[in-house]
Protein 1
Amino acid sequence: MNISKYEQRVLHVLAQGGAISFKRGDNGKLQDVTCVTRDGHVLNDCTLAVVERLKKRRLIRSRGGAAYRVTRAGLAAVRAQLDQR
């Protein structure tokens, strides 16, 4: 599966325990998204378009109105990266 660099970054953060918080508009669609790492930092590469593509490919999912998390398919799609700490 071809995954862009930005999608890969977001999946990597989610695989390490991050989450995507969101706001919905009056029509029920996503209006604003914020990707937060497990340390509490905000990832700027996470845009609404990236989240929509990951949702469409079923690599992330929200259960019961909670924050978006990575799915098993998302874990399988993410490539290993060094953590620059």
Note: The CA atoms of residues 30 and 52 lie 9 Å apart.
Protein 2
Amino acid sequence: MNILFLIGGLILILLGANGLTDGSASIAKRLRIPPIVIGLTIVAFGTSAPELTVSVASALKGSADIAIGNVVGSNIFNTLMIVGCTSLFAPIVITRNTLRKEIPLCILSSVALLVCANDVFLDKASENILNRVDGLLLLCFFAIFMGYTFAIARTPSTPPTGDSQQFAHPTEEDEIKLLPWWKSSLYILGGLAALIYGGQLFVNGATGIARNLGVSESIIGLTLVAGGTSLPELATSIVAALKKNPEIAIGNVIGSNLLNIFFVLGCSASITPLHLNEITNFDLFTLVGSGILLWFFGLFFARRTITRIEGSIMVLCYVAYTVVLIYNA
């Protein structure tokens, strides 16, 4: 039964990702909204819904390691595995604005979590806890992020000087199908529903298999649950890149990472304090390092483009991280 959940969930995730990308890209084109804004909001909210559901439910059930591990593991998976795999299908072009503002903001969110989760080191406390104050602080950061995103939406979508050659190709604009309003809305709602339900099926199947094998909650949260809840981001980013919408692909990853830390963990910690038992600084520093690696690859080498070689390096980094986790389990 668990294997059927895995397969069924994966099919729903792939179908949902395709519908969500088509619907959101069509609305972005019709309203002349920058695609990066769509990626940071509609797509990111939809693909982060599984993380929100799993983390809040885990927090209420007292499984803090799954709640926190889900977010930390998902963000590492998003940055290294999703960006890496997506660039293998089609190189990802990053705008100057994303490189200078959104990615650094993503790194800042990881640093904020690292600071909030180090009570033992910073305050000489008996244990590391994400308490309600930390949760409310993260939600305040989330409000600032949303304000910034809406500010982007009010600015003209014309690319800055120097980016025009990369983003002003008519052929890329033609790749976006202009759908009727009702069909775009149906694609988005149906895609979100398929992503959420498919993610839940996948997580239930993966968790059931893992627990039957006697794997700890922290490993489940950091790997299987994180990978399962990040499948919507993976599918959406790959589909967006193949459809010549690189800004939706990268915006989806960055937006999901920010939402996972600021909103998902903020809500979870505000509901009930989260005790960090087996989630260590190794995991948190890996999270910070993955964001820095993305920024580094985007800033140097191939002129704001994540190439297949860089994507391969990111995938290998994630594989190495997973091997270390399993080895130390």
Note: The chain has one domain: 2-328.
Protein 3
Amino acid sequence: MAKIPEQSAAALKYDGKNAPVIVAKGHGQLASDIISLAREHGVLIHEDAELTKLLSQLQLGEQIPKELYLIIAELIAFSYVLQGQFPDNWHNIHQRIDFKT
């Protein structure tokens, strides 16, 4: 019988200026609680076991390492797009995002 991996979660806070910081992390029931609380407050959730494993190695209050800047920046940018937020100087040059609601 295959062992089911324990659920893990890590939460980041981004202030728009500094590198994102680990504000919560946990395994098992604590991970479930973190995810539930995030959903209750409308926080977008990205599921990636490998990224969570890397983030879980950091201490609470610690900034993400430079090696993770690109992936985290892409996730933050994508979360803004999902919420219909775009930079002031952004022009939908490739016409890949449908603005119709």
Note: The first strand starts at residue 8 and ends at 13.
